[in-house]
Amino acid sequence: MISASLTQLLRQQGFEVAGGDGNVGARRIILRGMGSNSTNGSLSDISNSDVLVLLNGRRLGGTSPDFIGLANVERIEIIRGPAAVQYGPSATAGVVNIITRRGGEKTEIRAEAGMGSYDLSRFKLAASGQSNDGLFDFSFGAGQQYRGDYKVGGPGFVLEGSRSGNQYGFNGDFGINFREGHRIGFNYNYSGVFGAESPDFDSPYISHENPKPVPYKGLWSNDATNSNMAITYDGSTEDNAWNWQSRVSFGRFEHLTTPIDKPEFCYDPGSGLICFPNDSDTYILGMKNLTATLGYDDGGLFAMSGGLDYLVYEMDFTRGSNNTQPEYKDFGVFLSGKLRFLDDSLIFSAGGRFDSYKTDSGDKQDPGNKSETNFSPSVGLAWLPVDWLKLRGNYSQGFKMPDPFQTWGDWMWTDPNPDIKPEKTKTWEVGLDVNWEFVNSSLTYFRTKWDDKIHSVSSKGPKSYQYVNLRGATIAGYELALSADLGQAFHQDFTIRPYVNLTYLPTLRNEDLLGRSKPEDDTLTYVSKMTMSYGLDFIEPNIDLMANINARYLGEKLTNDYSKGYSTWMYYTPGTIVDMSVEKGIVEFADMGKMKVRAEVNNLFDKYDEGHPNHPRPGRNFYVGMVYQY
Fold it and tell me: Edge-to-edge, what's the strand order for the sheet holding 28-31?
C-alpha cells in the first residue's frame, strides 16, 4: 500500500477514521466500535481514549492522525484488543504504534513536492544514514501542506469553514551506538496547524437529506502545535538474552481558537441564555513520562518482560477570565511472561499490571482530587498444529479512569460528579491465523463487556451535561483480514494483491436506560455496525510502478441528526468511498537516485461523503507530485 498519510493508511487497514477534514483534531480513530477522542488539548480527549496512539512506544499528548505524518515512518504496529498490561489506561480497544526510521549503513533520501484540488500544496523531505564507523546514526522527516475550503461530493458546493490551513511536521532521530547492543537515542517530534477554520458550534447544520450551503453564524480560526522530546537508552547482553530500555519524554500541546467574525458568544446552561464577548480559547497540555523495562528471552522455554512507568498530564484551559488547571497522574508496574512447549507449537502467556492514579480539579475556587487503584490481568493460549495455522484465545481487562472534567465538571458545560467510578472492560477473544504460501488471513471473534461505562447525559443541575456510569454495555463481533499475492502464486516478479479488512458488530448493547436514544432501543449510539476496507495493490518492480485502489465502507449507525436538533436520532449508513493512488519511476540517474511521479484521486466517484451526519467531507479531489528518491 502506498499511503500519503496515517489517516489513509489506517482506513486501508479497516479502521474507521471519523471526523471532518478541516478542523484541527476533528478526527477519531475507531477500532472494534471504540475510538480515540478527537484532539483539542483537553484531558478528556487524551486520558479518556479507547485507541492509544503512540510514537516509538511513547505517548505524544495527542491522538489525532492529523498530527502524525509518514515522512520518517519505518512501520506501524497495530495491536487489536486491550493492551492495558503493557500500556496502562486508554488502551481498551487497541494500540497504534508508529515506529520511525533509524539510520543505517546506506544513506537514503526522499523528497516530494506537488499540488492538487482546493489549492492543495504538499512538500515532504526525509533522509537517514550513519557515520562510517557506525558510532552515530540519524534520520529525519519534514513536511508541509496547505488546503483551502473544499467542495463536498454530490451537490458540489463549497463548504465554508473547511479550510485546513498550513500544516507542518518534523521528526528527527539521532543515536549514539557507544557499544555493541547499546544505544542512546534522542527523538524529537513537532507538528503545527495554523489557520484551520471551523464553524461555530451553534451554527445550523447541513441536512444530509437535502445538502445545500449553510450561512454559518460564525467561524473560528484554529492554531495548534504539538512538540515532544524523548531521550532513550537501549541495551542488551552479548547473547541478546537480556534486554532493557529506559526512556524519559516530555511534551506540550497548545491549541488556540479565535473567533473570526462573531463578536458575541451565547450558551444556555439550563437556567437561561447567557451571552458575553467571544474570547479566544487556549488549551495547553503538558505531558511528562518516565518508563523503564527489562526483558528476558533466550529462545527457550521461558520469556518475560516487566517494567514501570509514570505519566503526568498537566492542563491549562483559559477562556476570557476563566481558568482551570486540572492534572492527571498515573503510576504503573507490569509483568508478563510466556511459556513455550512442543517446539514452540504451544504457547501460554499471562501478565498483569497495577496502576495507582489521581486526578485533580485544578480549580482554586472549588478544589478537589480523587485517587484510585486498578489491577488488569491478561491470559492467552496459542497453538500451531501445523506451521501455517495458528489457533489462539485470550482474556484481558482494560480500564479508563474518569478525567478531571468528568469528575469535577467545568465552568461552562459540565456539572461535577465526584462519585463517578473508573470504567472497566473485560474482553474474550478467539481466532485463527492462516499464512499458507501466497494467502494470509485471520479471523477473530471478540466480546467486550463494560462495567461502569462512562457516558454523558443531560444534567439535572445548572449546566447542560453530566458524566455518569452506565450499569453496563457490550460490544461483540468479528474481525476478518484476508489477502492473497497472485504474483507469488504464479511465480512472477510482480505483486497483485487483493485484500479485505472487515469488522462486523452484531452486538451493540447499552444495558442501562441512561444514554439510550429512546427507552426501548438498547443500541449503543455512534457505532457503525460494519466497517470494511477492500482493494487491490499492484507492484511491478521491473518498470518501477506501484498502484493501489481502496474502497472504504461504513455501515449503519445510530446517531444524532443535528440538522433537526440534538434530541433527534436516526439510523444512518454513510456508504462507500473509493480512493486511488499511483507512483511510477520516470528517470534514473545512475548512482544518483531516481525521479518518480505520484498521483492520487480521492473520492473517485464524487460521492456525498458523511462519515458522521451533517459533517460532509471533500468530494472528488486530485493530487500530482514529483518524487526524488536516493
Answer: 16-18, 28-31, 34-35
